[in-house]
Amino acid sequence: MFKALGAILVIAGVLYSVWAALSHRKLSQPPQSSANQNSASLEPRAQGLKFLGLTKNLPAIALILIGGVLLLYAD
């Protein structure tokens, strides 16, 4: 029973991390000017790596760690 709960917590942590990374921003937008039409990517410029920050992913990391502990040590 605890192993199933651990697996659920790990999966929930990964899904929460994905949701936190993809929420509240546009993934792509059409080119705004004729200079951008030959761009290789539709991703917006200067989006940075802020979505990988610890503060946004702390709940996900906690869920993954608790689930991992339950998977390792539960009977």
Question: Helix and strand layout, with pairings?
Answer:
Elements: H1 2-22, H2 54-73
Helix pairs in contact: 1-2
Transmembrane segments: 58-74
Keywords: Membrane, Transmembrane, Transmembrane helix
List key phrases describing it:
75 residues, mainly alpha, 55% helix, elongated, transmembrane helix, membrane
Task: Describe the structure concisely for a colleague.
Keywords: Membrane, Transmembrane, Transmembrane helix. The protein is mainly α.
For the residues shown, what is the average pLDDT? 78
Distance between the termini: 8 Å
Weakly predicted, low-confidence segments: none
Q: Please trace the helix and strand order, writing H or E for each element.
A: HH
Keywords: Membrane, Transmembrane, Transmembrane helix
Transmembrane segments: 58-74
Give structural notes:
- It is a single chain.
- With 75 residues, the chain is mainly alpha-helical.
- The chain has a domain at 1-24 and 48-75.
- It has two helices and no strands.
- Helix 1 runs antiparallel to helix 2.
- The protein is elongated.
- The mean pLDDT is 78.
